[in-house]
Design a protein that fits this description.
With 405 residues, the chain is α/β, with parallel strands linked by helices. It contains 14 helices and 13 strands. The relative contact order is 0.17.
């Protein structure tokens, strides 16, 4: 008897998440064969020896006894109240604990919020390059991603006028990722104000992904989108994963602010979806109040002499010494979006390079085209390895790129 063919959901045909795709699977195979692979493909900060602050671990441990039952579908009150206090300290005054949803990381909240909003054929404005989970979630909900350009020659900042020109009657939402993954761009106040005006003029829901909000370098300054969006709905997303080095806690939040009078049905839909998954991981939620209200150790890591700062500098030094590579210096987050010189390698293909680099040099990177860009001459790496490890990484980059000539 022949086994039946199991068909998949057709919505998956337009979905990809190559950060954990074929390259990552091949890297796992190589590790099983005994090879040591340097994994620069994903911002898994704990993998490189960064530790969650001890006070957060203690807060979670001390509240384990309260973590056994389900909590409220929006999350435990102390965590939501801590998020409110953070928002108010940043100038977002029109929020309360009722406006905060805690999720299993920002990833789950992206899916919940888009599912509650989108209908088939709706459009979502997304940056190019983008974090591909946003595109995947739009497609899964049968909407169409429409990309606005964040060009390297403009420091990867978007142009609000171009965004405005892309709006159609089917446009429902506008996504901003700031500080940006994968480019490390930190948008200026003027750029963000222009984007806010576009959204308000057309009544678009603004989703502001600010998971790297305190991961800033040199003189970069993060402007919360919610301080600029008043006449339409704004959803700010952040969490413990990056700034607080707690990826595995899977604790993120979404804060609804701005114009909410016309959004009651939508907010009810999001709460219903949150209820269907019962609640978010409870133990990790007890770390939120301590994290947001305590000492912000991230500033030591991103200042000169700090590990994140020095690793970023080592990456930029490696690019400066390279024959083949170029880089717009990242001003935030923990990535570099490297470009290969097309004149030296006119037939360069990011996916071919990533696979050959993995097979021959045992370094895992993410092809730039994974981030929904129309060009294939970039690749993304994390700035998480120690500076001394970067020297070996860039030696392998140069050897591989030279072989491709």
């Amino acid at each position: 008897m022949t086994d039946p063919t199991i068909a998949t959901n057709q919505a998956l045909q337009g979905v990809s998440y190559e950060i954990r795709g074929d390259l990552a699977l091949r890297a796992l195979e190589l590790e099983r064969q005994g090879f040591e692979v340097i994994q620069l493909n994903i911002g898994n900060i704990g993998l490189f020896g960064y530790r969650t602050p001890e006070t957060m671990r203690l807060a979670m441990i001390e509240n384990l006894g309260q973590s056994e039952p389900y909590c409220h579908q929006k999350g435990v009150f102390p965590a939501r109240e801590a998020v409110v206090m953070q928002q108010q300290n940043r100038g977002v005054m029109d929020v309360s604990a009722d406006d905060v949803f805690i999720g299993n990381g920002v990833s789950e909240l992206i899916e919940l919020c888009l599912r509650g909003l989108l209908n088939e054929g709706d459009e979502v404005l997304l940056p190019s390059p983008d974090y591909p989970l946003w595109s995947a979630s739009a497609v899964l909900n049968r909407a169409r991603p429409v990309y606005y350009t964040c060009a390297p020659e403009n420091g990867f900042e978007p142009d609000p006028e171009e965004i405005a020109a892309l709006v159609t009657p089917r446009t429902r939402a506008l996504v901003v990722i700031n500080p940006n993954n994968p480019t490390g761009a930190v948008y200026s106040a003027d750029t963000l104000a222009g984007i806010a005006q576009v959204a308000e003029h057309h009544g678009l829901v603004v989703f502001s992904d600010e998971i790297y909000d305190q991961m800033l370098y040199d003189e970069a300054r993060h402007v919360p989108m919610a301080t600029l969006v008043h006449d339409t709905l704004c959803v700010t997303m952040s969490g413990l994963s990056k700034v607080y080095r707690a990826c595995g806690y899977r604790t993120g939040w979404a804060v609804f602010s701005g114009a909410r009078d016309g959004a009651s049905e939508y907010l009810h839909a999001v709460e219903m979806l949150a209820s269907l998954r019962l609640c978010a991981n409870v133990p990790g939620q007890w770390a939120v109040q301590t994290a947001l209200g305590g000492h912000q150790s991230i500033h030591r890591l991103t200042a000169p002499g700090g590990r994140l700062y020095e690793s970023r500098q080592a990456m930029m030094d490696g690019v400066a010494a390279s024959r083949f590579l170029e880089l717009v210096p990242p001003r935030g987050a923990m990535y570099g979006f490297l470009r290969v010189d097309n004149e030296l390698l006119p037939n360069f293909d990011d996916r071919q390079f990533a696979m050959e680099l993995l097979e021959r040099q045992h370094v895992l990177v993410s092809p730039g085209s994974s981030f929904n860009v129309p060009y294939r001459d970039h690749f993304r790496i994390t700035t998480l390895p120690r500076p001394e490890q970067y020297r070996r990484v860039f030696e392998r980059f140069e050897e591989q790129l030279e072989s491709m000539r």
